[in-house]
Amino acid sequence: MGLWRNLFGPGQNEVWGDVAKQIGADFTEAGWMKRGRIDLRAKDHTITLDTFTTGGGENASTETRMRAPFRNGSGLTMNIYRDNAFARLGKLVGMQDIAVGDAFFDDAFVIQGEPEARIKAFLQDAKLRELIQAQPRIAFQIAKGKGLFSQNYPDGIDDLQFLCVGVVKDAQRLKQLFELFASAIDRLTEIDPGCRFDVNMTPK
Question: Could you tell me if 82 and 110 are in contact, meaning their C-beta atoms sit under 8 angstroms apart?
Answer without folding.
Answer: yes
